[in-house]
């Protein structure tokens, strides 16, 4: 889910003044004059209930709202599997990318501005992903998931790695965005630019204490001052939701979380080396019955050989 902003903006290559991959308004610790401000989340996503809950120190403490379109699975792979995957990745070169990241791409060549897609030098997903992709399909949310693109992104605090709030392109990429978080935990920050408002509800009404049985740090438990019959309204633009991603966890964004909310990784949430593997499926245009069905079949067949090298 993180590579679309990079590919859509034409990133890549050592274009920054500090020998990095930054272009345009993007910057990292190697090239920027002053660090940008970091936005703090005022809600935290609870995977047990699917609600976003107000942070204790924010004005939204004691409030919650439904946050659909997120599937989070901890310990998707084992520690030994993680180390083996990273070892195999590091055998290939990492290319500089924007905002202090490094990248490895496995996927077709996309021109987002002209809306053109072609095979290019794509030869398939890497061999180590075959078992990962097969395991994904054991979960109903990923039934029938056949990715045709994989992007590996390497984040490091010494480079000030981050990625700005963005949507992944929906002309070429389909409903589900799937990412595997390796080597360290981080936070996926969700924000929305809509001008309208939505309703909040007292947090303690949501499945009683289950909301907090495995909560991330700093989620509010101070609910006594909130009227249980009341609701509140808040502009979308005032809200940022933190989705805590543990090491070796798998996260899927779909529905509202895919199309309404932007996602980002902020610099202050990168404490040590972190690798993200993002998988994408094709949109309806390249699927059976779509205008470019034949090209989609070709790309899907190629992806499923699992014999690819970084493009």
TrEMBL record:
GO CC annotations, alphabetized: contractile ring; midbody
Cofactor: Fe(2+)
Record GO biological process: actomyosin structure organization; demethylation
GO molecular function annotation: actin binding; demethylase activity; oxidoreductase activity
InterPro entries tied to this protein: AlkB-like_sf, ALKBH4
Stored PANTHER family: ALPHA-KETOGLUTARATE-DEPENDENT DIOXYGENASE ALKB HOMOLOG 4, OXYGENASE-RELATED
Protein name from the UniProt record: AlkB homolog 4, lysine demethylase
Organism in which the protein naturally occurs: Varanus komodoensis
């Amino acid at each position: 889910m993180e590579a679309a902003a990079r590919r859509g903006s034409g990133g890549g290559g050592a274009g920054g003044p500090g020998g990095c991959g930054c272009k345009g308004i993007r910057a990292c610790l190697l090239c920027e004059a002053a660090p940008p401000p970091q936005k703090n989340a005022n809600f935290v996503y609870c995977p047990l209930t699917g609600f976003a809950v107000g942070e204790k120190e924010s004005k939204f403490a004691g409030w919650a709202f439904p946050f659909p379109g997120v599937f989070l699975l901890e310990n998707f792979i084992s520690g030994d599997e993680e180390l083996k995957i990273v070892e195999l990745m590091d055998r290939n070169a990492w290319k500089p990318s924007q905002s202090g990241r490094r990248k490895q791409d496995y996927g077709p060549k996309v021109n987002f501005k002209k809306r053109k897609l072609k095979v290019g030098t794509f030869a398939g997903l890497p061999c180590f992903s075959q078992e990962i992709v097969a395991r994904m399909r054991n979960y109903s949310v990923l039934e029938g998931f056949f990715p045709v693109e994989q992007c590996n992104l390497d984040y490091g605090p010494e480079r000030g790695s981050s990625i700005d709030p963005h949507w992944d392109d929906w002309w070429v990429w389909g409903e589900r965005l799937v990412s595997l978080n390796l080597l360290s935990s981080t936070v996926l920050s969700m924000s929305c630019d809509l001008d309208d408002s939505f309703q909040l509800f007292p947090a303690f009404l949501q499945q009683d204490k289950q909301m907090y049985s495995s909560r991330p740090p700093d989620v509010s438990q101070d609910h006594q001052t909130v009227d249980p019959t009341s609701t509140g309204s808040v502009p979308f633009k005032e809200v940022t939701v933190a989705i805590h991603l543990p090491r070796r966890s798998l996260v899927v964004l779909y529905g509202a979380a895919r199309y309404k909310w932007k996602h980002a990784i902020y610099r202050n949430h990168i404490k040590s080396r972190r690798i993200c593997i993002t998988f994408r499926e094709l949109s309806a245009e390249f699927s059976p019955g779509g205008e470019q069905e034949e090209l989609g079949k070709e790309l899907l067949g190629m992806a499923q050989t699992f014999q690819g090298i970084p493009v």
